[in-house]
Amino acid sequence: MAAKTDRKLRVVADNRKARFNYEIGEVFEAGVALTGSEVKSLRQGKATIAESYADTRAGEIWLVNANIPEYLQAGRFNHLPKRPRRLLLHRNQINKLMGAVEREGMTLVPLKLYFNKKGRAKIEIALARGKKLYDKRQTEKKRSWERERGRLLRAKG
What we know:
Blueprint: E1 10-14, H1 18-21, E2 22-32, H2 36-43, E3 53-57, E4 60-64, E5 85-88, H3 91-104, E6 107-115, E7 121-130, H4 133-156
Antiparallel strand pairs: 1-6, 2-5, 2-7, 3-4, 4-5, 6-7
């Protein structure tokens, strides 16, 4: 029997626009309730969470609008690519997130979808507040200045 290989976090989908469009607050790791064909499709590295968000429904948290394409070999047992998927969290985490969304007007934004060391599909969601246009411009100025400063320091040294 062959020895198991050392598994590391393998990111399947990353929401890079989230950090630009939102002020990221507290980050949570949640499991995702998936079907077999969805897991197979994820293992091929096919998923997008760029336009997705998390929503509260009937005391649970759901991932909405995340696209996991169909697994071609599944045949008639395939899944719907954009179906809502239940997120698996502890009850106190769910209550905290629901309270923040309802009272403070925050949004639940998925940051990345990955497989952990045990091979389980996990998603990193964050409590976030939407940025205004001037905040986005300020972020862009800061980023470009840091880039320019790095170039200048490299040129001198």
